[in-house]
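Researcher: Before we compare anything, I want clean individual predictions. No alignment, no superposition, just each chain on its own. First chain goes here; please echo the sequence and then give the structure tokens.
Model: Echoing the first chain and its structure:
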Amino acid sequence: MKLILRELQPQDEKAFLTGLKAWGEESSWHSFVWKEGMHFQEMLQILDDRKNGRNLPEGLVPDTMLYGFIDEDTIVGRVSVRHVLNDYLAKRGGHLGYGVAPSFRKRGYASQMMEQSLGYCRSLGLKKLLITCASTNIASSKIIEKFGGILEQEVWDDEDKEMIKRYWISL
């Protein structure tokens, strides 16, 4: 099924909330800003502020959250595009972070999201992207490599207590 990667709009509240449930216990993967009881419009304002570099909490950089829709009511995953890297993101996280809800995995959606994300990054003027993943995440490694990711190194991540792979993609 064809996926459309885009920012959330006011009419997407139902799809967003349904998508949140699809993540179950891992709902923080669906949104980094959503809090229980938050009004959807408030979240949209925070996302817009973050995209435009307004009211950023200390340590954060401008970023755009894009959601993968397979129809107007179904979100299968999301991509966080960091417009620049700070010291923290240069070590772990990189320019792109993506995830597909468990019930939608192994259907090609992550590849579609990655492909469309790269186009979005080009529109921001980015020339080279850092993308990281756990060394044990074979599926993510394959997708990153499929889109030109060159493994720079594997390093220990003290925060998550695991080895991570650092890839660079030239746009």
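Researcher: Okay. Second chain, same rules.
Model: Second chain and its structure:
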Amino acid sequence: MKQKNVIAAALILFGLSMFFDAAMAQTIGVRRWRRSPRQQHHVQRVQRAPYLGLYFGNNLKAEQNFVGGMLNLPVGRFWEFAPGVEYSLTGAEAKYDRWQFNGDLVFKPRPLGFIYFGGGLAVEYLIPEQADSRTNFGGNALVGMEFGRAPMKFFVQGRWTFLQETSFSVMGGLSLALR
């Protein structure tokens, strides 16, 4: 039953991304202007800034909420490196604290954003109350959408995390430009 929910959420996210992508029709990161009537058009490339993002989400398999932060660093015209950390809000009855560290490479077909997808490394760090800590390594696969323009953007994202078990998380948040 939970697998059907994950597939349904992924299809809804994909459908919304196609709808909003067609509706918004953002620029591709190139702005044109004319200096004088006799001169050619000149092209100015828009410089992409690094962003600091804060988000809140829910791991649907573990039924846990989490908060996190990430840094989006442009590494090419269409690529960003997005290291991040999140803390699970496990509640008072939990017998451990759970942290997850992510290092994802994100591909944005449009340099200024809107729909994106990617993947990378996931490291889960569990701190139990009465035993040694445990670290698990795995991977992430993600798809998301951005809304807004610099210096502030909103985003929603779906992420599959492949650790000892596969889980699906839905999150949303805010990114602020650092320059």
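Researcher: What stands out in the second chain?
Model: Helices lie at 2-24. Additionally, The chain has one domain: 2-177.
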